[in-house]
Amino acid sequence: MPRLYLDEYHQALTGKHICIACREGILRDNFPHIVADIKFLVRHGIRTTLYHNMANRFANQKHFRLLADRLPETTIKRVTPEVDFYTHVLDREQSVFKLIFLERKYLCDRKGHRINTLTTQATLQQNDEIYTNINIAGVLKQICSRIIDGAYNRVHILPARKNTIKHELFTVEGTGTLIANNFEEKFIPAVTDNDVEMLVGILGLYAKKGFLKPRNKQYLFEHRQRFRLTMIDGIAVGCVEQIEIDPSTVELGALAISTRFRNQRVGVFTVTAFEDEAKKKGFKRIISLTNNPRLHSLYMQLGFKQRELPEYATRQAASPGVALFCKDII
What we know:
Elements: H1 6-13, E1 17-22, H2 24-29, H3 31-43, E2 47-52, H4 61-70, E3 75-78, H5 85-92, E4 96-103, E5 117-119, H6 120-125, H7 134-137, H8 140-149, E6 152-159, H9 164-170, E7 177-180, E8 185-189, H10 193-207, H11 217-222, E9 227-232, E10 235-246, E11 249-257, H12 266-280, E12 285-290, H13 293-301, E13 305-306, H14 313-317, E14 323-328
Parallel strand pairs: 1-2, 1-4, 2-3, 4-6, 5-7, 11-12
Antiparallel strand pairs: 6-7, 8-9, 9-10, 10-11, 12-14, 13-14
């Protein structure tokens, strides 16, 4: 089960308004899970609204009563069957921090892989490359238009299942697709205990794949001054370790980006920010050792070269068989 970062993510969400929209069949099939997730949000000080289009017939009266009884602090809005559900929700909500559409499945690419994040520009340009049900596919342009106009900060499209909303908003990995107009990026030192906890989560995902040497929590707490976090919208999504090799050389280590933000140029931002900070500190060269093929491509793109340099033989001996990349930043 994904790890929840309640304290870390709570700061970005408390007091905000989150709207959840769910069509009739999906709501009925996942009723207890959706109710549990909304109750979880309310307990964490988040204002919630639930849109649904369940028909006003006798068979649904039990669900109406349960919604009222179990979600007394949530605004419940029923969309009548004669209007388009998505357009109705998009037209009614004009000042929401996050708008969540619960669907049968997440957005995916041609290979069937989940799309974690999209900018509005990418969504509009790649509309034919995005695969999902016909209902949500037909309103992606409307969603982007509303985000660009400032109606919402973020729109999430999630597969309805147990803990899907909770895991989307309170884990590093997420569960669905996030669409936004822009992502506010920052590169900051790891200072607090909460920062270290986020390092543990991000680095743990990569260590399991064998691309990074494991760094236990004790190591991270003892060496937190070396680490920098890449933040998006106030939430840690990537990290890097600064290791001084000699007065003129710094190692870029432990580069890791949450899988949720791959292909959003977060890696480029992180390496570039690392380079800028290294220059300010007076370093003349950056080295990095990695066998991660994604990082090989990233480094080559950013002007690094794969080399064998005798002055770093001792460092390379500590990571046998691992490629060394180097960039002079004079």
